[in-house]
Amino acid sequence: MKFSFKLLLWTIVILAAALGFSGFYFVNYVFETSLAREIGQASDESSILSFAFETAALNVPTKYGILPDNRVEEIASNLEAGGRSASRFIRISDENRDVLYASDGFGADGELLHKMAEDTKNYRIVEWDGRYYVHTGAMVNTLNRILYMETMRDVSEVFNERAMGFSLYRRVTLIMLLVGTVVMHLISSWLTKPIRLLTKATKRMAEGDYSYRAVQVSQDELGQLTQDFNVMANALEENIDKMEEEIQAREDFVAAFAHELKTPLTAIIGYADMLRSHKLDEEKSFMSANYIYTEGKRLETMSFRLLDIIVTKRGEAEFQKIPAGAVFEYLKGMFGKDTDRKLDYRYEDGEIWAEGNLIKTVLVNLIDNACKASESGSRIEVTGSRTEHGYCFMVQDHGVGIPKEEQHKITQAFYMVDKSRARSKNGAGLGLALCAEILKLHGSTLEIESEPGAGSRISFVLPDREKEKYEE
Model pTM greater than 0.90? Predict the structure, then answer.
């Protein structure tokens, strides 16, 4: 069942209960008030008749000072005739509660008669022949006789008015419920409109339309819910876009990895098959073995760098305080035998917080890429300087350079600006990807400045850190 229907149903139930209770209370209150008034009038009338009976009895001449039964009947008849009304009846009984006189139509039983006592007045409501009466009783003491006078006053009109009141209120209640149903249906539809819009938005998003947003139609709690839903949808869309980009990057990675494996493996298999199936002279055998060795080393380098990238993404560095000069001394020893290019080292003394081996790997890869991008005899500058925020390393060459539109892609695995040039020098497009992951672990990034034909300048800053941060 829809929420709007639940809201409508419960509203109708509560409205019906409220109208029913209030109607019963109101009609019953009017009825009880009217009935109490009639009972009061009947009681007053009974008192007046008792007084009139006693007065009339005193005026009747008696031989022995005792009121005879025939005089009682005569007085009662005169009282009834004097105030004759179809809504009032009289009955008089003697000391033994035997009836001496009763009006035509007096239909009450003797229950009240047997309850009457001296100086007491009793009453009750009785139903007789489809009508309602106030049955009163009082004791009359006159001329040495104790008599019991009963009256019946017709109060059927009060009960009829109550029945009419309930009937009218039922009709009014029914009309109110019908009108209330229509009004509450409109109100519930208006109140639940934000929920319907949210439902529509969730269905659209479930169908794959992540750009769809719910329309905010109110400023209340449901409006805030709609706003929060749209914020969540924005975050979800961003996460899905990132996931799609990651999936696409993985697919590209797998495709590039398969392609990079295919080239060296094809060469290795081809030259190995040539050595196996043909008898070659010494020069051709050496050339074939050299190709196999070269491509095998390329596969080895690629596998090691892939492993380094995976380990770097999942691992945590152990930061230590390292002299910057020690890093440059290591680089001089590593590239000291490179006579084809001129390596110029310039650095300021200082200390860095880093994982030494990882930072050395970054610099070795940057210098190696600079060497591959430079012609023989060109100069490569490796500098280190202290800045306001940390220690800056920079590697600058004067080689082929990198186009502007390619610079944001070079840290992707297997991406190579010039694939033929990179493969000829055993490159696989993994060096800068490894550097980016290592620097990310150190809270730094590669800064690339390059122009085609003018060379490249790649730098990064290792931020100053407190040792305690890495020991916690």
Answer: no
Q: Residue 349, Cα to own-chain centre: how many angstroms?
A: 58
Q: What pLDDT is recorded for position 284?
A: 80
Residue 237 half-sphere exposure, CB side, CA atoms within 13 Å? 15
Residue indicated by tokens 């239909």: 107
Q: How far apart are CA 138 and CA 135, in angstroms?
A: 11
Write out the two tokens for 312: 């770097």
- Checking if the pLDDT of 394 tops 90, the result is yes
pLDDT of residue 426: 46
- Any idea which fold 3-166 has? Beta-Lactamase (3.30.450)
| Token pair recorded at residue 53 | 């009976």
pLDDT at res. 423: 44
Among 351, 339, 409, residue whose Cα is nearest residue 377: 339
Q: How far apart are CA 424 and CA 9, in angstroms?
A: 80
User: Whose structure tokens read 């003491």?
Assistant: 141
Dist. CA 352–CA 347, nearest whole Å: 13
Angle at 126 between CA 125 and CA 131, to 5 degrees: 115
DSSP H helices in 192-220? 193-206
Q: Which of the four pLDDT bands, split at 50, 70 and 90, describes residue 471?
A: very low
| Collapsed DSSP state (helix, strand, coil) of residue 209 | coil
Find residue 140's DSSP bridge partners. Answer: 147
Give the residue among 89, 86, 92 at the shortest CA–CA distance from 74.
92
Residues 6+ apart with CB under 8 A from 438: 312, 358, 359, 361, 362
- Which class for 266: exposed (0-12), middle (13-18), buried (19 or more C-beta within 10 A)? exposed
Size of the chain in residues: 472
Query: pLDDT digit string (tens) for 288-328?
Result: 888 788 777 767 766 765 666 666 655 566 778 889 999 99
Average pLDDT over the chain reads 80
Considering the domain delimited by 316-471, tell me its CATH architecture. Answer: 2-Layer Sandwich (3.30)
Residues of the chain with CATH 3.30.450: 3-166
Q: Please, where in the chain does CATH 3.30.565.10 lie?
A: 316-471
pLDDT at 36: 93
Q: What is the distance between the terminal CA atoms of the chain, rounded to a whole angstrom?
A: 56
Q: Give the separation between CA 49 and CA 51, rounded to whole angstroms.
A: 5
Segment holding 427, helix H or strand E:
none
Q: What CA–CA distance (Å, rounded) separates 103 from 100?
A: 11
- Among the residue ranges 83-92, 174-183, 354-363, the one predicted with the least confidence is 83-92
Task: Give ∠ CA 8-9-11 in degrees, rounded to 5.
Answer: 65
Report residue 121: phi and psi, to 5°: -125, 130
